[in-house]
Amino acid sequence: MPKAGDAMTEGKVVKWYKQPGDAVKKGEPVAEIETDKVNLDLEAETDGTLGAHAAKEGDMVPVGGVLARILAEGEKDEAPATKEEEPQRRATDKKESVKHTTGEYHEAIEQRGPRRDRSAPEGDAQPAKESTDRLRSSPLARRMARDLGVSLESVQGSGPRGRIVAADVKNAKPATEGRRDAARPAGGDAGAPQLETKIIPLSAMRRTIAKRLAESTGPIPHFYLTADYDVTNLVSVRQQMIEITGVKVSLNDFIIRGIALALRHHPAVNASWGDDAITQHGEVHVGVAVATADGLITPVIRNADQKSVADIATEVRALADKAKNRRLKPDEYQGSTFTISNLGAWGIEDFTAIINPPNAAILAVGAAEPRPVVDANRQIIVRDRMKVTLSCDHRIVDGALGADFLKTLRQYVEQPLRLVV
Amino acid sequence: MTEKSYRDAIRDAMMEEMDRDPNVLIMGEDIGVYEGTFRITAGMLKKYGPKRIIDTPIAEAGMVGTAVGMAMLGLRPIVEMMTINFSIVAADQIVNHAAKVRYFSGGQVDVPVIVRGPQGAGVQLSAQHSQSLESFYGHFPGMHVVAPATPADAKGLLKTAIRGKDPVLFLESAALYGMKGEVPDDPEFTVPFGKSRVAREGKDVTVVSYSRMLQLSLAVADKLSKEEGIECEVIDLRSLRPLDMDPVFASVSKTHRAVVVQEQWKPYGAAAEISASIMEAMFDELDAPVARVTGEDVPMPYARNLELLATPHEPEIIHAVKKVMYANG
Description:
The complex is a heterodimer of chains A (421) and B (329). Helices cover 29% and strands 22% of the residues of chain A. Chain A has 421 residues and is of the alpha+beta class. Chain A has three domains: 10-107, CATH 2.40.50.100; 139-177, Dihydrolipoamide Transferase, CATH 4.10.320; 186-420, Chloramphenicol Acetyltransferase (2-Layer Sandwich), CATH 3.30.559. In chain A, strand 17 and strand 18 (380-393) form a beta hairpin. With 329 residues, chain B is α/β, with parallel strands linked by helices. Chain B has two domains: 2-183, 3-Layer(aba) Sandwich (Rossmann fold), CATH 3.40.50; 197-324, Rossmann fold. Chain B has helices at 6-20, 44-48, 60-72, 91-98, 101-104, 126-129, 134-138, 151-163, 211-228, 246-255, 270-282, 304-310, 314-324; strands spanning 2-5, 24-28, 53-55, 76-80, 114-119, 144-146, 168-173, 180-183, 197-200, 205-209, 232-236, 239-241, 258-265, 291-295. A seven-stranded mixed beta sheet of chain B has the order 3-2-4-5-7-6-12, with helices on both faces. A five-stranded mixed beta sheet of chain B has the order 9-11-10-13-14, sandwiched between helices. In chain B, helix 8 links the parallel strand 6 and strand 7. In chain B, helix 1 (6-20) packs parallel to helix 8 (151-163) and helix 3 (60-72) packs parallel to helix 4. The model of chain B has no long low-confidence stretch (mean pLDDT 96). Classes of the chains: A alpha+beta (421), B alpha/beta (329). The interface between A and B is large, with 35 and 41 residues.
């Protein structure tokens, strides 16, 4: 009995076309068979003489059961019944056999499966183009490093292609004084001095200065210092960086890094006013003013002094998008130690910004644009220039200190390799 | 609680609901006189008669189209597909009619139609009859897609489907029909859609699955626990649409690594949707890329040895779990 369908377990002999002793040819119909679904003709598989019918018309025969044998010349018809192991097992009523079939389905499912060859190396696909000095780390490892104060640069990654994973951060020691010496160039500090958190008790003079200035101009006594930087080189470096890395960095991203490094030289600017003391912050967190439909908000680039320009660019863009979608979390817009506000994109040449408390200062950045300047040979030439205005809290920052800060920032902005080496 | 097979749990769900609500009826090929290819409808023609247990011609589009009309006019038809693969013939009725009538009618007309039947590979039914269609149907808004992994869920989810007012693709695992498990006796027992469950607690790796692959994942979890001390937390999604990711997110925030297991092909599969959701919501929690365990990207071979190679088994899941733990050496 042939298996004419997957659900078929048995078939009925409807009619024998050929009788025992009849000659049959290959392909000639021998009998009509009825299955659950169809009636079909059973065709001879070979030439020969039909032997005895092993099933009568109307008999149900299990799949694989013998219906008759086709005998070759001189061959005798042997009783095949003794070989019917399959039919024995299947010779049950129709319902039982169906149950059996479906039960087998369950049993047939292999849990263990074959062993596949995994000798070929696998792992993450290699990106077509990647920077060689990119530090690979899992998102969790980055978060843990931030929480534990571990510098990823000091951690040896154990994952694929050196990826730093959570276990590596856990095993690493928290940040120490020496770790910054080994900092990699992109996120390094370009020789900027170390910072530490310091509480400086207010002197009587400082109190008086604060009180008097506050009385005259409101809670925060502002004063303003404007500088005009030559950004010709910076514009060019930015263009090259975009071409080389593909990261869409803006001039502002360079300025953020410049500010962060300059703050390391002038910890007194990286400070906050308190009633009894001035706090100089041990870390540099730069707030970036972002205009949204609802108004101004300042997401924070944490430890901006330890981040590369490209990383800052990526982070600023992500935070700005979040800000525009009102999805900033409090820890993403609180805790800045300095703020930058850039209206260059609006074509503003220069402006003054209001300090973002509890910062001691804010830098207002105007548009970078080609302007005529007088060079060392008293010739008029065209250079890219950018005006910045530092608003200072006079309770904390005096004029000379603010000017020193702008001078340091000038070195970074006008010699932009300092920002990327 | 009574120990029942997955098959009997499905039959019980339908019979209890047919007893409760005269509007419930079943249509399908060979479900009446023949009592069902997988014997889900055994004894039902005798009990409910040919008006409620309707043997149809081999015409899936006609069956589902008729059922959509019935459902629009207040009946609660269940269409049995001999295998869910045959529902592809009726895909237009399912996707363009059942799933859209409520929307087109401005919410005036419900379509409580259920298309149910077995799916999955494993017994040499070859390329056309071994497929799993959850990602195909899960793609379309307007209907539920359910894939139970246990007898209790098979019963509870099917009752929710029958009592609901929306089209439901109820995907049964042919390989699980014989599986037994405890099923609540209470005729009011139902399992809501969109409630994933933690099938096994663990601290090291989150393994997300459904239907038969859930059972395979549980077997792997036991094995890894015993032999290697790795504790997998196994999440049973139960329904792919609606998809309840919250227990997955909660688990990933604990384990920081995830493996998604599905039987069908990798491209555009359910595991792609699930792992992308994990990445979107849990990026900062992840310590390794989410791993997918899937079938091979080929039409299911008939040959036994090739079929075994084309479907996921224990070694693939073990490999993936160790990969996200960075433990493959």
